[in-house]
Specification:
This protein is an alpha/beta fold and 821 residues long. It is built from 38 helices and 15 strands.
């Protein structure tokens, strides 16, 4: 029930789910056996014994009924414009992450229309043959994905999956939606309704893989009116809890108790789930309430906070961290009274191993104790601005926490704009590595926010408190029983650096030697492969989504789970609630990539990761900013690939060649490929690839890439001391087009122009008066256009603009006034 109210469950509907529904002519919808009989009679097929639906469907292809109706027209009439069974009235009132169906009828879609006044969401119908998309949270959508096709589209080939050829086609082609279902099913909680699982060839392969028993505690169940003892055992082997119940009884019970679980989260009573607006379900799906209840008995024994593992909320509840100097002041600042229209946004940054995440969770604990409610972002997509604003208006004592916040900087900016001028206060605390925090600062440049940088060196007071905490928890290691002065001297000997002090305290091996030894000791090739991909994803700052594990490692979900619970990866990897597989500390990703994976392994693993991600990434996923897209975006970035694959740019370009089939449609793929080629001086293909990006999606970003490639070519030509007139003019034209297309809300074309203008005038200092006059006019045009930008974008440009002006002033005697923008 807690999983349902957070909209974390998927539904899978089998043939039995449509029983009780009727066709447009009033006849009850048939199951597999009934439809087989109908096809045999209607298409005058010869009797062939226990032929089954698949063979009879294949036999009816190309034939017509005695009245001249084709097979696709017959199916469309029989299974479209249906009347759904009564139980679906309850089903439509339950919030779903996604709905999958093995049926070709439109009962579910009609149910959501028929009971639209009480339906929890709006249903969007998708066939397995259609392109990928994600539900739009602002419209409270859920997708209804027909894995065997839709009768209304039976005229398309291939659409209906009934016969052997259809199953083989869907399986061998690894079509996007079948791939996604195969990825998602073992990793997400499911409620299966009306599926016997006895005759679904494609489904059987997925079910036999088993399921993760992830720590979120949301079990998968199968609901069927008739479940015999053999079936019950079989379902349990598949990781499903069998529930012998009619669908209407089951969902009536769900709806009856759903309000009490909503009240548990929202502190409000409701007589029915429909009394709660969709914003509650959307918010609770994305944000995890950090409660101060005592930690439960479930525990990962291999997790060790003092050994440097990423902190968990349980560690905070057990009071494992020692207090940092600015703990109390930060809490006070977070909770101080705000005037009308004021917000409190705090960015906590620091180098690796400075305790940013621990500090964030410790702040959350104190916030809890003072009567405020901390919510940690745990979503897989962009923050839903509307539901967050709605929640903050009704629960003003909420504080939003985002760890590794760089990907969500623009969401915070949008939420701030949404609440600006209203009495709703935004309280948000963000953390990020110092190297990525600059991006957040840039995005929030025009928004009042505080910065707190944690030092990797502890203060004297922090050392003292840490010693006291380690003494209390009996984790002093080699300092046990020593005098306080000697204990302090130990930390001073490590320059009071938190990580190095703790790493040596209990005589633990250094991370590098430990990682090398443990990686070399892994005998299972699948485990080693899985660890390598987790390392690459971790190096990018993410966790490997659980649905991708099978495609990458070749291991079933249960096998992969065993690897990280009691197997060879247990000391390095853990499974986090909902998010998937993560390294016990993020720095392990960097160490594994740098010290354990040779260039060939990195290439192959990065390629496999991209191929596994491809079915989950589409234009819709980009709009929704899904975790799969965010990983893909980081992975295909040219600078990251050069870091993974080495300095040989040909290897990087080979990688783009290897994954082109999965991302040929993607503008960013072509942009990054172009930038990689341009960095190596391959300007001709770089220009063509940059134009490919524009052809896929013309906007300020893709046009800016064209301008960047041309500016790089101009800089290369300028090395000889001659002004690159043609290349510069082409580049300036492309950047001007990018600038004019975006209007007043993008500084990137300006940034590119000023950066390369500075570079070029520095490279070619000897210029005649006529050229300087031309450049002066170009400069003044760009400089005057800066004034049209919105204030936040102008602020971000100040540094580049000043630097370019200084370079121009140094290399020419022509006066050009620099106006304060």
């Amino acid at each position: 029930m807690r999983g349902l109210v957070r909209r974390r469950y998927h539904a899978l509907l089998g043939a039995g789910a449509s029983f009780g529904g009727t066709s447009s002519d009033g006849r009850y919808l048939p199951g597999a056996e009934g439809l087989a009989t109908e096809l045999q009679d209607a298409f005058a097929l010869p009797p062939i014994g226990a032929a089954g639906l698949r063979r009879l469907y294949a036999g009816a292809k190309g034939k017509t009924t005695t009245s001249g109706v084709s097979l696709d027209a017959y199916l469309k009439a029989r299974f479209s414009n249906t009347t759904p069974p009564d139980w679906m009235e309850c089903f439509a009132q339950v919030p779903w992450e996604q709905i999958w169906t093995l049926n070709i009828d439109d009962c579910v879609e009609v149910a959501y229309t028929k009971w639209s006044q009480i339906a929890r969401q709006s249903a969007v119908s998708i066939s397995w043959t259609e392109q990928h998309r994600t539900p739009r949270a602002t419209l409270d959508e859920t997708l209804v994905i027909h894995l065997h096709g839709k009768a209304s589209k039976a005229h398309r080939d291939p659409e209906i999956v009934f016969d052997i050829a259809g199953y083989v086609n869907a399986t061998l082609a690894q079509h996007r939606w079948h791939r996604i279902f195969g990825d998602v099913y073992p990793a997400k909680p499911f409620i299966i309704i009306g599926a016997s699982l006895d005759s679904e060839f494609d489904l059987q392969v997925v079910l036999e893989q088993g399921r993760y028993s992830t720590p979120d505690g949301h079990p998968s169940v199968i609901v069927s009116k008739d479940i015999d003892a053999f079936q019950a055992d079989e379902y349990r082997r598949y990781g499903l809890i069998p529930i012998a119940s009619a669908a209407d009884e089951f969902f009536s019970s769900v709806l009856e108790i759903l309000p009490q679980y909503l009240a548990e989260l929202t502190h409000e009573e409701a007589s029915a789930a429909t009394d709660h607006p969709r914003e509650i379900f959307t918010f609770l799906n994305q944000w995890q309430r950090l409660e101060s209840a005592p930690p439960g008995p479930n525990r990962d024994r291999r997790h060790d906070f003092y050994a440097g593992h990423s902190p968990e909320w349980r560690d905070i509840l057990l009071s494992l961290p020692s207090e940092r100097d600015r703990h109390t002041a930060t809490v006070d600042r977070s909770l101080e009274d705000l005037k009308h229209g004021e917000h409190m946004i705090l960015l906590i940054s620091g180098d690796p191993f400075t305790g940013k995440s621990t500090f964030l969770l410790s702040i959350a604990s104190e916030i809890n104790s003072r009567g405020y409610e901390p919510y940690l972002y745990a979503g897989e997509e962009a923050i839903d601005i509307h539901s967050a604003a709605w929640w903050l208006q009704r629960y003003p004592r909420s504080v939003l926490l985002i760890d590794d916040a760089s990907d969500f900087a623009h969401d915070i900016e949008k939420l701030n704009v949404r609440l600006d001028g209203t009495p709703i206060a935004l309280r948000a605390i963000l953390t990020e590595r110092a190297s990525r925090a600059r991006h957040i600062d840039n995005v929030l440049a025009a928004i009042p926010h505080d910065n707190l940088e944690l030092n990797r060196r502890l203060s004297v007071g922090e050392v003292s408190r840490l010693i006291d905490k380690l003494t209390e928890k009996k984790r002093l290691g080699s300092l046990t029983g020593k005098a306080k002065t000697e204990q302090r001297r130990y930390f001073e000997g490590h320059k009071r650096e938190l990580f190095s002090s703790m790493a040596e305290l209990e005589h633990g091996r250094g991370f590098v030697s430990r990682i090398k030894d443990e990686y070399a000791a892994i005998a299972d090739a699948g485990a080693q492969r899985l660890l390598g991909v987790i390392a690459i994803v971790g190096n990018l700052g993410y966790e490997l989504p659980a649905p991708l594990v099978k495609a990458i490692s070749g291991r079933t979900p249960l096998e992969a789970e065993a690897m990280v619970s009691v197997g060879e990866l247990a000391d390095l990897v853990a499974i986090r609630n909902r998010r998937g597989f993560h390294l016990r500390h993020r720095i392990l990703g960097t160490l594994l990539v740098e010290h354990c994976l040779d260039p060939e392994e990195r290439f192959e693993l990065a390629k496999s990761l991209a191929i596994a991600l491809a079915p989950h990434v589409s234009r819709s996923a980009i709009t929704a900013n899904t975790v799969h897209y965010r990983i893909t975006r980081a992975l295909m970035t040219a600078q990251n690939l050069k870091r993974f694959l080495g300095s040989n740019i040909d290897v990087v370009l080979d990688w783009y060649d290897a994954v082109e089939a999965g991302f040929e449609w993607n503008a960013r793929f072509w942009e990054q490929r172009a930038l990689a080629a341009a960095d190596a001086g391959y300007f001709e293909p770089a220009y063509s690839w940059a134009r490919e990006a524009v052809a896929r999606h013309e906007d300020s970003f893709t046009l800016n890439t064209v301008g960047t490639v041309l500016m790089q070519r101009a800089a290369s030509e300028a090395l000889g001391g001659q002004w690159p007139t043609d290349s510069f003019e082409l580049a300036e034209s492309a950047l001007a087009q990018a600038r004019d297309l975006e209007g007043a809300v993008s500084e990137y074309p300006y940034e590119t122009f000023f950066r390369y203008f500075e570079r070029l005038v520095t490279l070619v200092e000897e210029r005649d008066r006529a050229l300087n006059e031309q450049l002066r006019n170009v400069w003044m045009n760009w400089h005057s256009r800066v004034l049209s930008l919105e204030p936040s974008y102008r602020t971000r440009l100040n540094s580049s603009l000043k630097s370019a002006w200084d370079a121009w002033e140094r290399t020419t005697q022509m006066p050009t006034r620099l106006t304060d923008s």
